[in-house]
Design brief:
Elements lengths: L4 H7 L3 H7 L5 H10 L7 E5 L7 H4 L5 E5 L3 H10 L4 E3 L13 E7 L8 H10 E14 L7 H8 L15 H4 L12 E11 L1 H8 L3 H4 L3 H18 L6 E13 L2
Parallel strand pairs: 1-2, 1-4, 2-3, 4-5
Antiparallel strand pairs: 5-7, 6-7
Helix pairs in contact: 2-9, 7-11, 9-11
């Protein structure tokens, strides 16, 4: 399998929006993951399905070599510009363009649910040296105590409801079968609190980067964007930052 068509439709021509309005990754989560795998400043890692390089840029200062593998050309162009310290390659989880046992670790941020198959896990294991490992990360929204959340979902209604399982994409129950009989040991996990700070237009733009929002026809998207901007301006004081809160969920496993 090359590229999940849903991912291609959702993000294929939206690199600028993704870069500007999606959250980054907490440095604490990345450092802890590297430590759990025993990786350090001399290690070599892959950022798989790297997008515009939001995770890549956190890895670059911490290890010797980062290879960002990304199938979508506009994402690779953005990544090469924003994270020049990484190598950028065209590839997918099922076809990583590197030799066997060529890296110490593979990281996948907000991506594994798109390619959670035994074939992909086997390909990831192929390029990881024995004793290295795999790290999977997701930024999960925490709308608790967000004064604008109720109004946001009231405006979006059913049309803005996530695709089935979208809010559960980080759960091991969804994709754990992909690791059966694999070269990886048991998956372990931890989580880190995280925040994205923006303004009202940024909050609205962020909502429209959600993959289930990108499949809406453009006329309806335009109408919804206008309605949502008006509602968020009422819900959020214009003089204050808008804080989008997350729990960054991290899974890691060593290659045997």
């Amino acid at each position: 399998m090359a590229i999940d068509p849903r991912a291609e439709k959702a993000f294929g021509s939206q690199a600028e929006d993704y870069e500007r309005h999606r959250p980054g990754w907490p440095a604490e989560a990345v450092r802890r993951a590297l430590g759990r795998l025993g990786l350090d400043a001399e290690s070599e890692v892959i950022d798989l399905a790297a997008g515009t390089g939001k995770l890549t840029r956190e890895l670059v200062p911490l290890v010797r070599r980062v290879i960002a593998v990304e199938p979508l050309a506009d994402m690779r162009r953005a990544l090469a510009t924003t994270v020049p310290g990484a190598e950028t390659l065209d590839g997918t989880a099922e076809s990583i363009p590197l030799p066997d046992e060529s890296v110490d670790g593979v990281f996948a941020g907000e991506a594994f649910h798109w390619f959670a198959t035994r074939e992909a896990v086997a390909e990831i294991a192929r390029v990881v040296r024995s004793g290295g490992g795999l790290v999977l990360l997701w930024n999960m929204h925490d709308f608790t105590d967000s004064p604008w959340a109720g109004e946001l979902f009231a405006v979006l209604g059913d049309i803005g409801a996530p695709a089935p399982g979208q809010f559960e994409r980080h759960r091991k129950e969804r994709w754990g079968d992909a690791f059966e009989s694999s070269a990886f040991g048991p998956l372990e996990e931890f989580s880190v609190l995280h925040e994205q700070r923006t303004d009202v237009p940024g909050l609205v733009a962020h909502a429209f980067t959600w993959s289930h929002m990108r499949v809406i026809d453009e006329p309806r998207r335009t109408e919804l964007r206008r309605e949502l901007l008006s509602a968020m301006e009422r819900a959020c004081p214009s003089s204050q930052e808008v804080v989008i809160r997350y729990r960054t969920q991290v899974y890691w496993a060593r290659r045997t």
